[in-house]
Amino acid sequence: MANATLEDVPSVDLMTELLRRLKCSSKPDKRLILVGPPGSGKGTQSPIIKDEYCLCHLATGDMLRAAVVAKTPLGIKAKEAMEKGELVSDDLVVGIIDEAIKRPSCQKGFILDGFPRTVVQAQKLDEMLEKQGAKIDKVLNFAIDDAILEERITGRWIHPPSGRTYHTKFAPPKSPGVDDVTGQPLIQRKDDTAAVLKSRLEAFHKQTEPVIDYYSKKGIVASLPAEKPPKEVTVEVEKVLSQ
């Protein structure tokens, strides 16, 4: 693709990209952080927000892996830490975010997902943005009761060969425990059991609630009713981001 000229690009792709850029040019810049426990719907909403506001989506885990593969100076340092079994330092992660947000795709802003997880990380992120004359505009807090999450997640069952998913309450199979089409048994993902969820939620509350407090003091947190159906949550997100 490196040698391709514009003549080689199908005109429909060029038009789509031109229309996208025209739409994007009128959108306000947004720098957003999504916060919420596993299963709260961040993964459903972030692509919608990304497309609507022409932002880039920064998932720190993916970015770290990409930097390691690309052997960037920060990636090499991160790899050394991982090989020693150490956690990658906050400064390194902020450095990788710093590199990423300079890309053209992040021109209108970004969605940060999975970071910051601690108040120290939030402070370092703010310092880095301040140097660029930028700041976080909004923190979307996907607020949901633990009990609702437990019902939502532990009720999920899947048919691995086809990827069909069921839910004991919201979308049950015709016969309990078996796939509607093949009659084969359904399984539950290891991450979807009550015990795993409990430990993930405990970690989330302990680490991340202080981050929400930190940004609340700056007056930029918007709490979303994440227990509502996805379409209703999207409407709430749009309300918050149009202010």
TrEMBL record:
Q: Which reaction does it catalyse?
A: AMP + ATP = 2 ADP
Xref: SUPFAM superfamilies: P-loop containing nucleoside triphosphate hydrolases (SSF52540)
Enzyme Commission number(s) from the entry: 2.7.4.3
Q: Determine the domain of life of the protein's source.
A: Eukaryota
Query: Domain Adenylate kinase active site lid spans what residues?
Result: 156-191
Extract the PROSITE patterns matched here. Answer: ADENYLATE_KINASE
- A Pfam family for this UniProt protein? ADK
MF-aspect GO terms:
AMP kinase activity; ATP binding
InterPro entries in alphabetical order: Adenyl_kin_sub, Adenylat/UMP-CMP_kin, Adenylat_kinase_CS, Adenylate_kinase_lid-dom, P-loop_NTPase
Q: Which UniProt keywords apply?
A: Kinase, Nucleotide-binding, Transferase
Instruction: Quote the subunit structure annotation.
Output: Monomer.
Its biological purpose is as follows: Catalyzes the reversible transfer of the terminal phosphate group between ATP and AMP. Plays an important role in cellular energy homeostasis and in adenine nucleotide metabolism.
Q: What is stated as this protein's family in its record? A: Belongs to the adenylate kinase family.
Protein name as it appears in the record: adenylate kinase
